[in-house]
Amino acid sequence: MNQPQGLLRLAGSGVALMLIVGLTACGGPPKWVKQGSGAFNDKDTKAFYGVGSVTGVRNEPLAWDTAENRGRAEIAKTFDTYTGYLMRDYAASTTAGDFSRNTEEQNVERAIKTITTTSLSGVRSIDRFKDEKTGTYYVLTKLNLEDMKNNLEQAKELNGQVRDFVRKNADRLFERLEKEEDKRSNRQ
Questions:
Q1: Rounded to an integer, what distance in angstroms lies between the CA atom of residue 14 and that of residue 11?
Q2: With 50 as the cut, is the pLDDT of residue 177 above it?
């Protein structure tokens, strides 16, 4: 083999290796980061997924834990979420004298409060990704549908005290809801 061809092959191999390494490094986030949370069919099972993320936390173990907890919260929101919504809208137009001049003003306010409280067993962290450019930590969590069904089956076997506590609080919340509905019907 003559020397120019050997150098050409070596240079070509080096360029190919650099391209592979470069493309791998610039591959971007995994598909699940962009897909987000929700219920999806796996190859052979159904599952609930939560994607949690955090930015701006320098303590790496704390960042990973925070992202994982947020992923768990995303799954919990799938099952039980209370959302309170309030919007206030004020508009006024004032005309003085000859109607050629007027003053307009408006104010719009919106407040949303979302609460999720649920207890989930079997949620696992299954993947992690750190975006080095933004410093964002992402964690993918998963709750297998079969695991959830098993947990619900076990919950049916609650002892009497717990069952009575749940019934009592369910009745109290139902009464509270009825009062709120009565208030609304009286306004109309």
A1: 5
A2: yes
